[in-house]
Amino acid sequence: MANTKHEGAMVVFSGGQDSTTCLFWAMERFQPVTAITFNYNQRHKAEIECAQEICRDLGVEQTILDMALLNQLTANALTRSEIEVKAGAGGTLPSTFVDGRNLLFLSFAAIAAKQKGLRHIITGVCETDFSGYPDCRDMFVKSLNVTLNLAMDYQFVLHTPLMWINKAQTWAMADQLGRLEYVRKNTLTCYNGIMGDGCGECPACQLRNKGLVQYLEQKGK
């Protein structure tokens, strides 16, 4: 990998397991590292407070953008409390899929990054444990990378450190970075807004906790 330590980066940051692992990954490779968090009146608003606390704790500059328009445009389990959180079945997307979310988040992150003279943008999307979300696919990210560069005549690089690994491997990455316990205790992935290991029942918690158990079992062998 080319030496990018002297180059700055922006992390799309929700305060969850994936984005926090990506934040630590970025801090190993770039300087300075900033974070951008999006408030779209999401169901689990506690994640914004969690993201703020992590950034304060790590001394990372954070921007919080008001994206309420996204909530107005699309109805799903993350933007409407009356819609039940359900996994996808029979080729249907989960009720938690938010149309256009990563398209908008990465586009706005790129605009903000350019103003700060940053070329590297890191996001925790993943095609291995991605619940079928189309905007988590590698093809989408690569396509958007080209589009953003053309749209702003600026050479961005979109990094996806988790793209080809599963949750157990994501926990392994956090451990390799010396941050497994930090990520486990201080992040919020739960759709019901419970810190750490979460409620244990929602799809996000089940995926996260299954990965942790798998990793700890592998580590113990």
TrEMBL record:
Which InterPro entries does the record cross-reference, listed alphabetically? Answer: QueC (IPR018317), Rossmann-like_a/b/a_fold (IPR014729)
Q: Which chemical reaction does it catalyze?
A: 7-carboxy-7-carbaguanine + NH4(+) + 2 ATP = 7-cyano-7-carbaguanine + 2 AMP + 2 diphosphate + 2 H(+)
SUPFAM superfamilies attached to this UniProt entry: Adenine nucleotide alpha hydrolases-like
Residue ranges spanning the membrane: these are none
Can you tell me which residues bind ATP? 13-23
Q: What residues does Zn(2+) bind to?
A: 190, 199, 202, 205
Cofactor detail note: Binds 1 zinc ion per subunit.
Q: Which coenzymes or cofactors are required?
A: Zn(2+)
* An example Gene Ontology molecular-function term: ATP binding
* Taxonomic superkingdom: Bacteria
Pathway given in the UniProt record: Purine metabolism; 7-cyano-7-deazaguanine biosynthesis
Report the EC number(s), separated by commas if there are several: 6.3.4.20
Keywords in alphabetical order: ATP-binding, Ligase, Metal-binding, Nucleotide-binding, Queuosine biosynthesis, Zinc
Q: Record's Pfam families?
A: QueC
Q: What GO terms in the biological process aspect are recorded for it? A: tRNA queuosine(34) biosynthetic process
Question: What the protein does?
Answer: Catalyzes the ATP-dependent conversion of 7-carboxy-7-deazaguanine (CDG) to 7-cyano-7-deazaguanine (preQ(0)).
Show the HAMAP family listed in the entry.
QueC (MF_01633)
- Provide the assembly information: Homodimer.
Family, according to the entry, reads as follows: Belongs to the QueC family.
Protein name, entry field: 7-cyano-7-deazaguanine synthase
- Can you name the source organism? Acetonema longum DSM 6540
Lineage of the organism = Bacteria, Bacillati, Bacillota, Negativicutes, Acetonemataceae
